[in-house]
General stress protein 39 (Sarcina ventriculi), 290 residues
Amino acid sequence: MSIDENFPKSFPKQHQNKQPGSESQMNPMPIYDAPEYHNDGKRLKGKVAVITGGDSGIGRAISLAFAREGAKVCIVYKDEHEDANKTKELVDKEGADCLLISGDIGCEDFCNDCINQVMNKYKSIDILINNAAEQHTVNSLEELTKEQWERTFKTNIFGPFYLTKAALPHLKKGSSIINTVSIVAYKGHEQLIDYSVTKGGLVAFTRSLAKGLASKGIRVNAVAPGPIWTPLIPASFDEQKVSKFGSTNIMGRAGQPVELAQAYVFLASQGASYITGEVIHVNGGEMVET
């Protein structure tokens, strides 16, 4: 039996009223770990990784995978303290050092303070994962308010900009920046207009930074998830859509966070030393024009 046969193909009806959602309230819980994905190669031994949205979903899976590869993990999250403490507990069990920092990445002062906290504790930063995001559905452009547009951009675009700018003076040759984009950056989404635009912007941000930082030996890449079972899903869509989430994919199911984590490990490692400005698509076989 293959590992994916154990992954759910449908979900109970559910909805959460707060972004970016809480993993502890999801049914079933996202799968962030599986024995088949374990690797003791210590590909990131001694590295310091800053992971936004590292408390849950894809971020939790990345945090755990990085810890297993020997990295020190700094998890930046908004206010989902229960999820963050659970992830820290998982990282601690791997014998890895873990720092939790709570706040709004849409605020430049917080991002500067975040990087200062990491430097004060670890004295270096080797990997920056811009993973945190929010999304809100609308039925039409007319329904999309100025306030929602600005809020989505603050988290999804301004946050990565502020954090990358603050971290850049501390990055060095061999460092890596990885942005979480999305399949909707390429295909669009009729109900996620502002979210799709920000993810498309992150693709351009990735490619532009890659060109600008190549001479410094700093690589910049991205991962574009397809339908992945994370807290953003019940926090964004109605119960009916959640219950069918991912079912139209050619693999017949949504992906699980654990299925993305190794893409981030690879891009952060020396195994990807000749890869920059690229996007790895992890979407269950959805063909997109890149």
